[in-house]
Design brief:
The complex is a heterodimer.
Chain A: H1 2-29, H2 34-42, H3 47-56, H4 63-75, E1 81-82, E2 87-88, H5 89-124, H6 129-143, H7 146-160, H8 178-216, H9 219-226, H10 231-269, H11 274-283, H12 287-315
Antiparallel strand pairs in A: 1-2
Chain B: H1 2-10, H2 12-34, H3 67-103, H4 105-120, H5 123-134, H6 138-149, H7 151-164, H8 168-175, H9 180-188, H10 193-216, H11 227-234, H12 243-270
Classes of the chains: A mainly alpha, B mainly alpha.
C-alpha cells in the first residue's frame, strides 16, 4: 500500500512538473513582450524601466535558463507577481483557496449522495413511473449549462421568492461571529453548491442506475438470492457495493470538470474563490495570475485523482497495484 | 444501413433527438435567410418584454436588440463550433489511439502517457487559458475545445484497435504483406467506427456547452452572436429583464439534450448488446 501511494505521488509530481513547463510556454505565447506588458501594468513604460524589469525577471537570458528559473520559482511556491493587484500570485491564491474548497467539496458531497440515492431508487423501481421521472430529470439537468442554472436559481430563489442571497460569501457589514456567522455563510453557500452539484448529481444518478441494473444480472446476485438473503441485504451489500465502482472512477475523472464548473459558479455568485480570481484575471488580461490559478487548479485535480485512486482500492480490495 | 435506421427509429430517445437536431440544423441553415433582422441592430426600445409585439416575439435586450434574431443567428455559431471542434478532436484523437493500439509497446506507452497528461489538466481551465492567450475568435475557440476534448477519443480508439488487432482477418492482411497504414485504415478502423460515432455525438453536445460557457465569460468571438454571449449580457440586468437570460439558455438546453438523446439512440442502434438498460 505504502509503495503504491509513493508511486502515485511521484507520478503526480511528474505530471505537475510537465504542467508547469507547459504553463511557462503558454506565458511566452501571451501577446506582447512580457517586460513591456509588466511595465505598462505598473504604470510606467520608459526604456530604462523596461530594461530593469527584463533583468530582474531574467527575460534577457536564454529560454532554457528562463524555464529553469521559472520552474525553480514554482517549486518554492513563487508563482510570480500580479501587477494589477500589486501582490504575489501565490498570496492571492492562498487567500481564495479555502472558499473554493468549501464550495467544491460541498457540491461534490451533495452530488454524490443525491446521485447515488436517486440512481439506486431508479434502479430498484426500474420501469415504473418514478424511474422514468428520475431518468428524464437527470437527462435534463445533464444538458443544462451551469451558468444558466445559476442564473435561473437566482431568478427563482433570490428575485422571485427572496429566500436566499444571490451573491457573496457572507452578509457584508454584518460582522457576525460564531454560529450566526456559520449560518450566514451556509445560506450563501446553498445556491452555488446546488448549482455546481446539479450537473454531477445527474451524471451520478445515470451512472448508478445503469451500473446497478448491470450488476443485478450477474450470477453472484442469483447465488445470494438462492441462499435466501433478504432483498434489502442483497441490494445493499451485493449490488450497490459492486455497482459503485464505476461511479467512484467517474468521480475521479470529473474532478477537472468540477473545478471548471467552480470558475463559472463563483463568477455568477461572486463567490470569493480562485475561480472568481481566474475570471478577474481574465478580464484584466493578468496573465501571471491567470496561469498561476491554472497551475493550482491542476494540482488540485491531481490530488483529487490520487484520493479517488486510494478510495477505489478501499472499495474494491480485489484490485492489485503491483505494477 | 437500412438495419441501422430501423433500430435507430425504434429507440424513442433517438427519434426525439433526431427531430430536435433536424429543427436546430434547419434554424441554423435557413433561419438567417428568412429572418433578415441583424441580431446586432437596435429594432425596438430596450427591455421590451416578450410576447408584446409580433415582430419581436421574444422581446429585446438592454440595447433594444431582437432576442429572437439573436437566438436564430446563435444557432449557427453553436452548431458550427460543436461540429467543427469535434471533427478536429477526432482528427487528433483517432490517429493517436490507432497508433497506440496497433503498434503497442513503447509507442503505446509514450502516446498513452501523453494522452493521460492532457486528460489530467482541468479541461475548462485550459480552454479558458488558451482562448485568452490566443485572443478570442471562432478559430481559437474551436482549437481550444479540440485540444481539451481529444483524449477520450484516443483512449477509446486504442481499446478498440487493441482488441481488433488480433482478429484473424487482420492477421490475414499482415500475412499478405499489406502495409501498416493500409491495415489500420482499411481493415481495423472501419470496424472500430461505431463506438467512435456514439462518442462523437456526445462530444458535439459537450462542445456546445463549452462554447457557450466560454462566450458567457466574455471569451466568445466578438463578431458573432452566440447563445452563451446573450446569457452573459443579460446577467447584470436579470432583475429587470428575465427574458434576456431565460430564452437563449433554453436554446442551449434543448440542443444539448437533443444531441445527448441522439447519442443514446446511436448507442442502442450500433451496440445493441450493451444498450439493454441504458448507459
Amino acid at each position: 500500500m505504502l509503495s503504491f501511494v509513493a508511486q502515485r505521488v511521484l507520478k503526480g509530481v511528474i505530471v505537475l512538473l510537465a504542467i508547469v513547463v507547459l504553463n511557462f510556454f503558454l506565458i511566452r505565447l501571451a501577446p506582447g513582450d512580457p517586460a513591456i506588458v509588466m511595465a505598462g501594468e505598473a504604470g510606467a513604460s520608459d526604456q530604462a524601466f523596461v530594461k530593469q524589469l527584463r533583468e530582474k525577471f531574467g527575460l534577457d537570458k536564454p529560454l532554457p535558463e528562463q524555464l529553469f528559473i521559472y520552474v525553480k520559482g514554482v517549486v518554492s511556491l513563487d508563482l510570480g507577481f500580479s501587477f494589477r493587484q500589486q501582490a504575489p500570485v501565490a498570496k492571492l491564491i492562498g487567500e481564495r483557496l479555502p472558499a473554493t474548497l468549501l464550495l467544491t467539496l460541498t457540491a461534490f458531497a451533495i452530488s454524490l449522495t443525491l446521485g447515488i440515492l436517486f440512481g439506486t431508487f431508479a434502479a430498484r423501481l426500474a420501469g415504473t413511473f418514478l424511474d422514468t421521472a428520475i431518468t428524464v430529470f437527470a437527462l435534463i439537468f445533464y444538458a443544462m449549462p451551469i451558468f444558466w442554472v445559476a442564473l435561473m436559481g437566482i431568478l427563482l430563489f433570490s428575485v422571485t421568492m427572496d429566500w436566499l442571497p444571490s451573491f457573496g460569501y457572507e452578509t457584508v457589514g454584518a460582522n457576525l461571529t460564531g454560529l450566526a456567522h456559520a449560518v450566514d455563510v451556509a445560506k450563501h453557500l446553498i445556491m452555488p453548491a446546488m448549482t455546481l452539484g446539479l450537473f454531477f448529481m445527474a451524471t451520478y444518478t445515470r451512472m448508478t442506475r445503469a451500473s446497478m441494473l448491470e450488476v443485478k444480472r450477474l450470477d453472484f446476485v442469483k447465488t445470494a438470492r438462492a441462499k435466501g438473503l433478504s432483498d434489502a441485504v442483497i441490494q445493499r451489500r451485493h449490488v450497490l457495493r459492486n455497482a459503485l465502482l464505476p461511479v467512484v472512477t467517474l468521480a475521479g475523472v470529473h474532478s477537472g470538470t468540477l473545478i471548471g464548473g467552480a470558475v463559472i459558479t463563483e463568477t455568477v455568485f461572486a463567490w470569493p474563490g480562485i475561480g472568481r480570481l481566474m475570471y478577474d484575471a481574465l478580464l484584466q488580461r493578468d496573465y501571471n495570475l491567470l496561469l498561476g490559478v491554472f497551475v493550482i487548479c491542476s494540482a488540485m485535480v491531481l490530488t483529487f485523482n490520487l484520493i479517488t485512486d486510494l478510495v477505489y482500492r478501499l472499495v474494491d480490495p480485489r484490485i492489485e497495484y503491483a505494477a | 444501413m437500412k438495419q441501422f435506421w430501423k433500430s435507430m427509429l425504434k429507440s424513442p430517445s433517438g427519434v426525439i433527438g433526431l427531430v430536435i437536431l433536424l429543427v436546430a440544423v434547419s434554424v441554423a441553415v435557413f433561419g438567417p435567410m428568412l429572418f433578415p433582422n441583424s441580431p446586432w441592430r437596435m429594432v425596438q426600445r430596450p427591455f421590451l418584454p416578450p410576447f408584446t409585439l409580433s415582430t419581436v416575439p421574444l422581446g429585446t435586450d438592454a440595447l433594444g436588440r431582437d432576442i429572437f434574431a439573436g437566438m436564430i443567428f446563435g444557432a449557427r455559431v453553436s452548431l458550427l463550433v460543436g461540429l467543427v471542434s469535434t471533427l478536429a478532436a477526432l482528427i487528433v484523437g483517432v490517429p493517436i489511439g490507432a497508433m497506440a493500439g496497433y503498434f503497442g509497446g513503447k509507442v503505446d506507452d509514450a502516446l498513452m502517457r501523453f494522452t493521460e497528461f492532457f486528460q489530467t489538466i482541468p479541461s475548462f481551465a485550459l480552454a479558458i487559458v488558451l482562448v485568452a492567450i490566443l485572443q478570442p475568435s471562432i478559430y481559437s475557440i474551436v482549437a481550444s475545445i479540440a485540444v481539451v476534448s481529444w483524449p477520450p477519443v484516443a483512449r477509446l480508439v486504442r481499446g478498440e484497435v487493441l482488441s481488433l488487432r488480433t482478429r484473424e482477418y487482420v492477421q490475414a492482411a499482415v500475412v499478405t504483406g499489406q502495409s501498416n497504414s493500409w491495415i489500420i485504415l482499411r481493415e481495423i478502423l472501419p470496424n472500430a467506427l461505431s463506438p467512435v460515432i456514439v462518442l462523437a455525438s456526445l462530444m458535439v453536445a459537450t462542445a456546445i456547452l463549452l462554447e457557450s460557457s466560454l462566450s458567457f465569460l466574455g471569451l466568445g468571438d466578438p463578431n458573432l452572436i452566440s447563445w452563451g454571449y446573450m446569457v452573459g449580457a443579460g446577467r447584470t440586468v436579470i432583475r429587470q429583464a428575465w427574458w434576456i437570460t431565460v430564452f437563449p439558455g433554453i436554446a442551449i438546453l434543448i440542443s444539448v439534450l437533443g444531441l445527448n438523446l441522439i447519442g443514446e439512440g446511436l448507442n442502442d442502434a450500433l451496440n445493441p448488446r450493451l444498450s439493454r438498460e441504458g448507459r
